[in-house]
Amino acid sequence: MRALAGRELGIVLVLVAVVTVTTVVNPNFLSRQGVHDLFLNSSIIALLAVGQAILVITRNIDLSVGSVLGLSAFLSGQLYLADRDMPVIVVLLAGIALGAVCGVVNGALVAVAKVPALVVTLGTLYVFRGLDYAWASATGVHQVNADRMSPDFLAFGNGSLLFLPNLTVITLLVLGVAAYALRAFRPGRELYAIGSNPDAARLSGIPVGRRVFVAFVISGALAGLGGVLHASYFGTINASVGSGRELAVVAAVVVGGVAIFGGSGTVVGAALGALLLTTITSALPILGVPAFWQRAVDGAALLLAISLDRVVMLRVAARLRRRTSVGGAGG
Amino acid sequence: MADRLFRWETLLFLLCLAVLGYGAVSTSGFADPDNVRFLLLDYSEVALLAFALLPIVLTGEIDLSVASVIGFCSALTGKLWNAGMSFETIVPVVLLAGLALGAVNAVLVVKFGLPSLAVTIGTLGLYRGLAYVVLGDGAVTGFPENYRPLAIEYGTVVVVVVGVLAAVTVHFTPLGRALFAIGLGPEATRFSGIRVDRVKMLLFCVSGALAALASLIYTLRYNSARADNANGLELAAVAAVLLGGVSIFGGRGSVFGVATALLLMAGLRNLMFLNDVSNEVQNVVTGLLLIVSVLVPVAAGAIARRRRPQPPAGTQPSRSPDPVGAAVSHGLNEEDR
User: Fold this and answer.
1) SS3 for A159?
2) What is the ipTM of this complex?
3) DSSP 3-state assignment of A143?
4) At B247, phi and psi to the nearest 5?
């Protein structure tokens, strides 16, 4: 547990360093509006990172989240084309349901095919995205603009509750529930057991298949929710929304300290990872780094994080071995 | 095991013939020599990536960064060409750049001991990002007229040569046997005196160089160097490798199977193209092929088990789904943790 706290503390320290340096260059970075924008921009990625973290903890992965987000955003647009006065809650539930269905597909395929989730979700990444385009060309709707959506919906995506943007409030709620469930609920703890050692988890009576399936459905549902939030925030959607976002999500999760081979990490870390990556991306232009470098940030951060983890792990292992050999000499 | 493998590839080969035959009958122009030439050329980059990926997957690793290497090398080609460098100089520079990107993957995976899945998802993003750093989001065109026909004329020949080299190396050399051994058990292979690390280093470097070669064909063929060239092409390459009967866990597969899968996919793509199916929707088919290719062996195994008498006590009954290990593992080679 101390190691986990250490990781989250580490991210916060890096975050503080990035924010401090950037604020020195441009004081507006830490203005009320600046902070508001940072939270807003990282909310959707953080939401997806929470779902992804739950899966990665069980030693799985979902590469299709960007496509699911796009599909659900497109659904929101289509719903408003059908009826401009659609209540916000209906659109939210529809998006979550669509995402959950995608998660069911992923989860069922992984459970049936017994192949790495990587392969299945790489396939569904393109299947879901293709369905999105096919839907767009079948209905002849290639873009839905804000003027076709209900004012309530747009107000919901751009509004604030006290100081926090609505999207951030939703992400924090989801994060709070997920963090508590993974910490205090039996099925939550079982996810860690599955990720640490699937065989042992099975032998100790954990319904491994069912837990992993549910994790896929949760990840899908959160991506679906993310799609609706994206539509309500940006107000303009087309079939390519969310393309390539899976990289940012996986990077956030790994930077946040969730081990890619499962068994350790927290959703809070993953969300902090998302906040850190978003902050770095927003800080780069202010620090005079050409805009095109932004695209390399997620990949570079992912590589840096796994390399650092490896170095730390080797150090710890070496220290343990030294201690054991000293103890061994005494005994 | 060997005869099942044989059957899978035979099945695939028959399927391939069926698709090509159906195309020839149903779609006018499909069997035209010009169209066949285009069909093959149009899949040349994917084929090169698949031949690069095949030995890596045989050892139980993966390289998802291949399409981003094409993007980077294409952007570099455009940048150097804009800077006035002669194309004769650009070719070796770009090939070396590809080799260097592959070497970065190799060092991170082999020397640092990091999981290749995580590393190459990272470099997938990093190399694509660097492609934009090199060239921005513009396009460079106007490549020399004497080189463009070369790529169009000989692109397929290059693929065939690489395919034959891959087949000979994988199936008829000690190095090739080592690939299978590593996939089945890296520890045992290491103890039998095979330099596992060196083999893996080599594979990732070759993968980078082959992707660079593919980028040259791509850039010349479309007469366009862009940072987003070949975006998402890793899907088709991975799909071809798995559809070709290569096990994602390593240790099983053949170049013949992958070549057949490539031909099948190229035929399907061309058929859809001739029937005006959009690019994005074609991706659905590629994605489905990838999923089907991993489902078929499972289904075949289930049928085979049902035919056989009840398994002896102690083994799992056939109907219970057993997600342990396989289903819950996206770690391709867990020894590398």
Assistant:
1) coil
2) 0.86
3) strand
4) -75, 135
* Spatial distance between the Cα atoms of B203 and B219, rounded to a whole number of angstroms: 24
- Tell whether A320 is within 8 A of chain B (Cβ): no
Q: Do A292 and B132 touch (CB under 8 A)?
A: yes
Here the tokens at position A261 are 């081979």
Token pair for B129: 């990002």
| Predicted pLDDT of residue B105 | 97
The amino acid occupying position B147 is Y
A190 SS3 class:
helix
Partner B contacted by A312 (CB < 8 A): no
pLDDT above 60 (res B277): yes
Q: Among residues B20, B140, B128, B28, which one has the least CA distance to residue B81?
A: B140
Phi-psi region of A284 (alpha: psi -120 to 50; beta: other; left: phi over 0): alpha
Cβ-in-10-Å burial (0-12, 13-18, 19+) of B161 comes to exposed
Residue B130: alpha-carbon gap to chain centroid: 22
Which has more pLDDT, B23 or B326?
Answer: B23
Is A8 touching B (CB cutoff 8 A)? no
pLDDT tens-digit profile of B98-153? 999 999 999 999 999 999 989 999 999 999 999 999 999 899 998 888 888 888 88
Model pTM above 0.90: no
Residues of B whose CB is below 8 A from A62: none
- pLDDT digits 0-9 by tens, A121-153: 999 999 999 999 999 988 888 888 888 889 999
**DSSP summary character for residue B47:** H
| Phi, psi of A85, rounded to the nearest 5 degrees | -100, 20
CATH fold of A2-330 reads ABC transporter involved in vitamin B12 uptake, BtuC (1.10.3470)
Pick among B285, B330, B334 to test the A interface (most A CBs inside 10 A): B330
B113: closest CA of chain A, how far (Å): 8
State whether A293 and B133 contact (CB < 8 Å).
yes
**Contact: A292, B337; criterion CB under 8 Å:** no
| B228 CB neighbour count, 10 Å cutoff | 15
Rounded to whole angstroms, the Cα distance separating A289 from A283 reads 9
* Cβ-defined contact of A296 to B132 (cutoff 8 Å): yes
Q: Is the sign of the CA dihedral A153, A157, A161, A167 positive or negative?
A: positive
